Every structure is written in structure tokens, then in C-alpha cells.
Amino acid sequence: MMNHVQTAKKPKIKIRTRLHHFGHAVWEARFIYLILLPGFLYFAIFQYGPMSGLVLAFKKFNAGLGIWGSKWVGMQNFKRIFATPAAITAIRNTFEINLARLVFQFPVGILLAILLNEMRGTKVKRIYQTIYTFPHFLSWITVSAILTDFFSSNGAINATLTSLGMEKVNFLSNTAFFRPLLYLTHNWKEMGWSSIIFMAAIVAVDQSLYEAATVDGAGRVQRIWHITLPGIKATIITMFILEVGRVMNAGFEQIFYLQNAAVKSVSEILDTYVYAITFQSTPSYGFSTAVGMFKAVINLVMLVLANFMVKKIDGNGMFG
């Protein structure tokens, strides 16, 4: 009997000891935790707090009854996604646009970072970096207004074509031009900003490796291929996995301001679809929440899958 009591007391003593050590460690690092506190509060209030509203995805929302009083409908809203042709089209467009972004947009930041790093002269490098980064701070509504002025039927591009004796091209209402326009404008606006993290990774590469390679007769391209790219490989892998994890976020603002009825068949993505069914028609909050939740789950699956595949191929995932 005494042995049984002593055995029951030991786990309690161990738990108290661990709690004591944990409390002591937290107190020792209290200033670090104090600095992190605003970040924790932000995620708790604005990221995790609203997640309770995901229950709407399983309900038929009635404003009079409130969220918790509304009728449960189970998976009915999710079944509706795959029974709605417009939702299927939006899912397909979202995948196609974002997979193309991985090909045509993701490498541009890396390429720009390498080109800037190879430039001689710190002042010139900073000037070019500022020029390429500045468009990031322009809103998409401003950029779309500029593009409309340039590419409209009476814009600068068509005026130039007319002056050269060529026919006008309806760029903004042509389904063949819409997606390339997305990638080109996004690269113009964001490539400077996306290159910053790769520039920081390049700076961290051991400079003695470049000196040794130069002594051995390696050219500039060889140094980039054998030193720079391997040196920033971990950063590239991490950023690539994160980009794959955003495969269902195809850039709402950019597409929302650039799309029109003529190109809706190739431009309607899940975000614009949710906006339309929520604010431009009779709202169905349960269905729109289900679409948003479906998008989040796919993003999570793609993130885990990309990390798994990269780790299998390269041996290094997002967490090493």
C-alpha cells in the first residue's frame, strides 16, 4: 500500500519540478517574452480569435438567430462548392494562375538579387535597389489605373500602334493577354521587394569562397552557380515552400482591379468568387465561409506536401 502511495506521489513531484523549472526559465527570459507579447496578442486576437467563425461553414446562417443559434447543415455547404459550375471554374483558375506564378514570378526575385549583388559600386547598387523596390509601395488600384491608361483602346500603347500603321489591340478585354499581363505587372511591382530577402541571404555567404574561386580561375557565372546559389539554397527552399502553401491565394487585389466581364472566364478566382457571392448577390455566409475554409485546407495540404517532397528530393525541408 505504501509503495502505491509513493508511486502516485512521484509523478506529482516531477510535474511540480518541471513547472518550477519552466517558470524559472520564463522569468529569466521575461524581457524577451515581453518584446514578443505584442506579436502573440496580434495573432491571438486577429488570427486565432476569428477562427471561431468557421462554424458558419457548417450552418445555414440566420441573422435573427445568430451564429450559434442558426441551423446546422453539416457538409451541405461544402457539397455545394463542387455542385456549382462557377465555383469549379474559380478553383481551376486559382490553381492555374498560381502554378504559373511559381514559374514566372518566384524566380524573378532570386534573379534580381543575384544581378544586384554582381553590380560594382555600392551607391549604384542602392540606387537600382530603391528603383526596383519603390513600386511595391504603390497600391494595386493605382497600378490598375496606370495600366488602364496605357493599355485601353485609346491608351498610349494603342496610340503608338496606330501611329505606326498597325491595328489597335484590345489588351484588357482579351483572354489571351490577361494572365501574361498579371505576371508582368506583378513582377514590375513586387520583384524588388521579393529580392530583399535573397539579397540578405547572399550577403551572409562567406566572401572568402568567392576570393578562392577567383584565384582558381572561376568566371562570374561559375561563381554564381557553385557558390551563390548553393549558399542561398535554404532560403530559396523555405520561400518556395511558403509560396506553394499560398497556392489558393492568387492575388485578390490585382485581379479584382484588372478584371472585367470580358475576361471573367480566365480571371475569376476563389477570392473574387467569394466576394461576388457575399457582396454582389444575396449573401450566403455559410457557403462563402465554406469556400474560404476549403481554400485554407488546400493551402495547408499543399504546404505540407511541398515540404515533404522537397525534403525527399533534397534532404532539407522548411525546418531543416
Structure, explained:
The mean pLDDT is 85. The chain is an all-alpha fold and 320 residues long. α5 packs antiparallel against α16, α13 runs antiparallel to α17 and α16 packs antiparallel against α17. The relative contact order is 0.11.
Secondary-structure map:
Layout: H1 2-28, H2 30-48, E1 59-62, H3 66-69, E2 70-72, H4 76-83, H5 85-104, H6 106-118, H7 122-133, H8 140-151, H9 156-163, H10 175-203, H11 207-215, H12 220-231, H13 233-244, H14 252-258, H15 264-267, H16 270-279, H17 285-314
Antiparallel strand pairs: 1-2
Helix pairs in contact: 4-17, 5-16, 6-10, 7-10, 8-14, 13-17, 16-17
Strand order of the largest sheet: 1-2
> What structural class should be given to the helix and strand makeup?
mainly alpha
Radius of gyration: 26 Å
Q: Give the overall shape, derived from the CA principal axes.
A: flat
Considering the chains and any ligands shown, give keywords for the structure.
two-stranded antiparallel ribbon; flat; mainly alpha
Provide a compact summary of the structure:
This protein has 320 residues and is mainly alpha-helical. The protein is built from 17 helices and 2 strands.
